[in-house]
Amino acid sequence: MASQVWLITGTTSGFGAEFVKKLLARGDKVIATARNTSKIAHFKDAGASILKLDLFSEQAAFDRVTADAIAIHGHVDVVVNNAGYSHFGIIEDDSREDWVKQYQTHVFGPLGVARAFLPHFRARKAGTFVFIGSTAAWGGIPTLAAYCGSKSALRGAVETLGLETKPLGIRTLLVEPGFFRTELLNANNTVYVDTKIDDYKPLTESLFATFKGYNQKQPGDPAKGVQRIIDTVKGENDAAGKEFPASLALGSDAVEQLRNKCKETLKLLDEWEAVSSNTNYD
To answer: Measured between alpha carbons, how far is 68 from 132 in angstroms, rounded to an integer?
Structure first.
């Protein structure tokens, strides 16, 4: 496949950094972005272009970054919305600000970036959006309500974006990883809100310890996961000959989790069909 131009958010570590390394190695052009560009300066030496992009910006700022990105190579082929962080806390303890930050990072910011690139993609009748979601979108996890909620919102928005733009030649892929050995659970990318309510302490103390202990023990290899995403975008290797998907579960744990959720949902529908149905006007 011919060389492509990729813009990637959140490239300081994890999936974002792997995207930059793998794409440069295969000869693609990369525009790496981060809120603090000093943390990704080494990618410039490796051949990438560097831009500052803060997901807490207003739409006008996203539009300016997009214009700067397009000016570098004359166009952009693929936009990867990757940046994110984990917020742990009980709903009763969480503040509105806690949730606004999660939704700004996982929903409003990525959609703002996509909104900025849509005129460019529409004009070219081509372009691919990749959004890094999470299997957390498929069900609640105690102490992770803000994270689960934001990833669920992203899922619905991205699926809708895909339906709106597919007739225009634009592709949209939602990637839903399981647990990968990225920096998502380390102290720099995770917020833990200790409960002030004794009733919740047994739950939070147990779960917080579990997640903190799971850091760098996750089963997924980020390099392999990113390669599968690149294969999907380019239609190569195991993705060759397949129709481009609206979403991609990533990791054997993700496949198992989503399959079990579907089975549970079908079972629930069957058991409660008599109650759920027959509600139309006679």
So the answer is: 23
Cβ atoms of 257 and 135 closer than 8 Å: yes
pLDDT in tens, 35-76: 999 999 999 999 999 999 999 999 999 999 999 999 999 999
Name the percent of the chain lying above pLDDT 70: 98
- Indicate if the pLDDT at residue 185 is higher than 70: no
d(CA 182, CA 246): 24
Dihedral over alpha carbons 175, 82, 205, 256 (to 10 degrees): 10
- How far, in Å, CA of 208 to CA of 195, rounded? 11
CA distances for 75 relative to 6, 94, 202, 280, angstroms: 9, 42, 53, 51
Dihedral of CA 166/242/246/172: which sign? negative
- Look at residue 1 and tell me whether its pLDDT is greater than 70: no
Q: How far apart are CA 175 and CA 247, in angstroms?
A: 6
Query: Which residue bears the tokens 């669920």?
Result: 152
Q: Which residue has the tokens 């570590």?
A: 13
Average pLDDT, stretch 191-209? Answer: 93
The enclosing H or E element of 267 equals helix 252-271
CA distance 105 to 139: 20
Query: For residue 218, what are the contacts with CB-CB under 8 A and spacing of at least 6?
Result: 179, 180, 181, 182, 185
pLDDT of res. 246: 97
Q: What is the pLDDT of residues 245-263, one digit of tens each?
A: 999 999 999 999 999 999 9
Task: Please give the full DSSP string across 45-107, using - where no structure is assigned.
Answer: HHT-EEEE--TTS-HHHHHHHHHHHHHHHS---EEEE----EEEB-TTT--HHHHHHHHIIII
- Whether residue 183 has pLDDT greater than 90: no
Q: Sketch out the chain's domains with CATH numbers.
A: 5-271 (3.40.50.720)
